[in-house]
Recover the amino acids of this structure.
């Protein structure tokens, strides 16, 4: 169509062509409306991940759970999710990404509604596992659909930044949202909230979100699906065991089994004409480096949160909700950094932005490694703010590089690999840095002779294992002795934090250099 406009040079009208449609062939407002609908499952998954942790004490009281059951209530979801991400990403490429997203949304909402009224711990664990099954359909689908809705790099980059902002924003809202629901309603309300959150997507998603799939999908290789599960479940479970039990034979053996299955999986993919996961994607240095940057960004962030949460709650005396509120500025900084780097890559190469983000993460750890944080939480919270800015910048651009470096037909598999990197990075940050922190604490702790030499004092063994155990022990002791126990526990913990931060600083600095070198040839955005 054309439009008539008055001429500024005479009385005859001139013809002016309307602005061209984007490469998607759709009106721009429809693309952004589709992105808005995609944000609902993103927010839901992010809120659900953080909100439920604040409901665990209430769940334990309500369902009378054992310690093992409580662990499985937490672990069932990420284990199933990680096991199925690669398979679901590949399924989305084959059957249609919108179709998989809507199936996952219906299932997630329905299972959430049922699980909210769990009569027993076993029922809740089964419900969490089912949520992991449907959750594995959601996140890869949203990211791969963005790749196909926004084929132009600049619009896609902004869409990815908004996607990442939604995820970070949801994580920030989770503690507030979950705490309010538990306080005013009951723990099941956190799960039941999934139903109204999903309604807009279910009502309008089919009409607004365009379908996309691999035009030459090939058949689904069932053995590859099973092998992918035999890779991810042992690896994820083993890493979680390392984080809770420390370095021992069993978790290392479990991880080794997963790695061995990974070798079998890769060899099978290389032989298949239509593999579940196209291994040639990893031959692309941009794709592989961006995945590594994603893993390390999440590694640094979750490792930092691990010891910061303990410091705030056990040494500063904050409640879980107060400590969550204290971290919100840093989470918002992650959102802000992700949005600000979108125009920045028009002036600076993306590789430099990713390397700069990882450098900021290293700087955050340097503030902890060489700073004195015994006078309060201010330094640690400032360091988290610096680290969060780096994570937001690196994560947004690395996700865009992941999507932009692969054909649109393989975007589901690429998004699944990216999401798997999220899970593995988060778990590794907790397991590796957590294990170093625990080992250093145990090595440096010297309890007062009156406590260490008394076998009748309850909690002495736990005090030697964790900071929480030392705090619990102090509550049972007379004031002077309690202060002595807290003082030596604080000293041992802070010594461990310094060592852990120094190791993380070295890792992040090396990652920044590597990203800068490998991604240096990626051109600036036009």
């Amino acid at each position: 169509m054309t439009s008539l406009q008055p001429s500024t040079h005479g009385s005859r009208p001139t013809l002016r062509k309307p602005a061209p449609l984007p490469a998607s062939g759709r009106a721009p407002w429809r693309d952004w409306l589709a992105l808005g609908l995609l944000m609902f499952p993103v927010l839901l998954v992010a809120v659900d991940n953080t909100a439920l942790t604040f409901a665990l004490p209430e769940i334990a009281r309500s369902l009378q759970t054992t310690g093992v059951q409580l662990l499985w209530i937490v672990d069932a979801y990420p284990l199933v999710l990680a096991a199925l991400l690669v398979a679901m990403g590949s399924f989305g490429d084959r059957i249609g990404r919108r179709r998989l997203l809507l199936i996952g949304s219906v299932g997630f909402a329905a299972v959430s509604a049922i699980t909210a009224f769990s009569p027993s711990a076993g029922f809740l664990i089964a419900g969490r596992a089912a949520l992991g099954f449907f959750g594995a359909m959601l996140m890869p689908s949203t990211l791969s659909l963005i790749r196909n809705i926004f084929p132009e790099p600049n619009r896609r980059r902004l869409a990815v930044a908004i996607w990442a902002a939604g995820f970070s924003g949801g994580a920030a809202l989770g503690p507030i949202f979950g705490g309010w629901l538990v306080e005013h309603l009951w723990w099941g309300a956190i799960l039941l909230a999934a139903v109204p959150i999903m309604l807009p997507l279910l009502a309008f998603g089919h009409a607004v979100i365009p379908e996309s799939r691999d035009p030459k999908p090939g058949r689904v290789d069932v053995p590859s699906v099973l092998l992918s599960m035999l890779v991810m479940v042992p690896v994820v479970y083993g890493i979680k065991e390392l984080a809770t039990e420390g370095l021992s034979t069993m978790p290392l053996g479990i991880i080794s089994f997963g790695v061995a299955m990974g070798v079998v999986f890769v060899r099978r993919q290389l032989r298949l004409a239509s593999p579940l996961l196209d291994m040639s994607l990893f031959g692309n240095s941009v794709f592989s480096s961006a995945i590594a940057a994603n893993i390390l960004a999440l590694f640094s962030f979750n490792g930092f949160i691990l010891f910061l949460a303990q410091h705030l709650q056990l040494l500063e005396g904050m409640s879980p909700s107060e400590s969550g509120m204290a971290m919100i500025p840093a989470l918002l900084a992650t959102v802000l950094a992700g949005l600000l780097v979108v125009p920045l890559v028009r002036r600076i190469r993306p590789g430099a932005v990713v390397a700069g983000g990882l450098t900021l993460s290293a700087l955050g750890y340097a503030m902890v490694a060489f700073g004195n944080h015994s006078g309060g939480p201010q330094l640690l919270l400032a360091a988290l703010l610096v680290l969060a800015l780096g994570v937001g910048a690196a994560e947004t651009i690395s996700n865009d590089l992941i999507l932009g470096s692969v054909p649109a037909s393989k975007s589901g598999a690429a998004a699944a690999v990216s999401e798997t990197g999220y899970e593995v990075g988060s778990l590794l940050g907790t397991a590796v840095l957590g294990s170093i922190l625990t080992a250093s604490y145990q090595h440096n702790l010297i309890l007062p002779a009156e406590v260490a030499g008394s076998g009748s004092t309850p909690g002495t063994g736990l005090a030697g294992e964790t900071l929480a155990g030392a705090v619990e022990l102090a509550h049972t002791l007379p004031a002077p002795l309690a202060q002595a126990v807290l003082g030596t526990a604080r000293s041992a913990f802070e010594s461990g934090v310094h060592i852990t931060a120094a190791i993380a600083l070295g890792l992040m600095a090396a990652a920044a250099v590597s990203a800068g070198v490998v991604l240096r040839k990626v051109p600036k955005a036009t």
